[in-house]
Write a structure and sequence with these properties.
Helix content is about 60%, strand content about 15%. It has nine helices and five strands. Helix 5 packs antiparallel against helix 6, helix 7 packs antiparallel against helix 8 and helix 7 runs parallel beside helix 9. The longest helix is centred in the first third of the chain and has 31 residues. The structure holds ligand 0O2.
Length: about 270
């Protein structure tokens, strides 16, 4: 196939990957802006390379003209979570969306692969708008914890290095590493609530500090400079105490002051 044709074939997949990345990143933003813990930690996507597509065609005996119908992971999205529990929340979020339809589900967390690979896979269909109209295309969404991702990335590189014939002694060590990753995920889940509390306090503090600084900056435009400097010094003093309650109460007082100035200037 000519390279120009490959570009045309892959273009809608590039668009889908970009759109899906934006949408999943928006979910993270949405949670964090509401001072909530996001079940999604990071997202990345890729379009399968031409050589990997050709390799899959050879392996699965797929004719080139059938790749868009038969290869379901040309568009690939990888979602990383902190905890195993988050993976199932993300699956629920995707199930409740109207812009992607789940066609296949594979739970390699419940059904660990013999290699030790763990991850949750969804094949979805997703519509993209092209010059020729709407195209419904397949995308594969892999959802895993950061620990699972660490293992899978190393194992994938080794598969590549040994051309899918990893020596037995390395396979054994990979299996041992997979067990350690499973244990790590279980340990993290057991202190889930504590970690979540610490993280949500951190998110709340970050949002409050940015809200306070925003208010102080706006006050510079409308209030007496000396008064604003005093407010700012007060803020730094409270900030040094590292006490979230005090910070929240300061933010509330500042809101009232800012509201007063807004009313005055209307
Ligand atoms: P790449 O280079 O990551 O794209 P399929 O080959 O997808 O038609 P299969 O095997 O039923 O058929 O699909 P499965 O098991 O859902 O695997 C799809 C993808 O999951 C793989 O894509 C890998 O990305 C990942 N994966 C599956 N098993 C393993 C594993 O044992 N180790 C690692 N590191 N990743 C795995 P590709 O196309 O094989 O590779």
């Amino acid at each position: 196939m000519e390279i120009q044709l490959w570009k045309e074939i892959l273009m809608p997949y590039e668009l889908a990957v970009q759109e899906l990345e934006v949408k999943f990143n928006h979910i993270i933003k949405d949670y964090r802006s509401r001072n909530m813990y996001s079940p999604i930690e990071t997202v990345n996507g890729r379009v399968k390379s031409i050589s990997s597509i050709l390799e899959k065609c050879r392996k699965k005996n797929i004719a080139i003209e059938n790749i868009t119908n038969e290869i379901e992971d040309i568009a690939g999205i990888r979602i990383m979570c902190q905890f195993v529990e988050d993976i199932y929340k993300v699956v629920e979020i995707i199930k409740n969306r109207s812009d992607m339809e789940i066609r296949q589900e594979k739970d390699y967390i419940e059904n660990v692969k013999p290699s030790g690979y763990r991850s949750y896979h969804l094949i979805v269909t997703y519509n993209v708008e092209t010059m020729e109209g709407t195209r419904k295309i397949f995308a594969e969404i892999q959802i895993r914890t950061l620990a699972m991702n660490f293992w899978a990335t190393i194992e994938h590189s080794l598969q590549y290095k040994y051309r899918h014939n990893i020596p037995e002694h390395i396979k054994k060590r990979l299996n041992a590493a997979a067990d350690a990753i499973l244990k790590l995920d279980e340990e993290m889940s057991s202190i889930h609530d504590e970690i979540m509390d610490a993280q949500s306090s951190f998110i709340i503090q970050a949002n409050i500090v940015s809200e306070i600084l925003n208010n102080i900056q706006n006050l510079y435009k409308v209030a007496n400079k000396r008064e604003v400097v005093k407010i700012q010094d007060e803020f730094f003093e409270i900030y040094k105490q590292n006490d979230l309650e005090q910070l929240i109460s300061f933010a509330k007082q500042l809101d009232i002051i800012a509201e007063g100035y807004r009313a005055q200037n209307q």
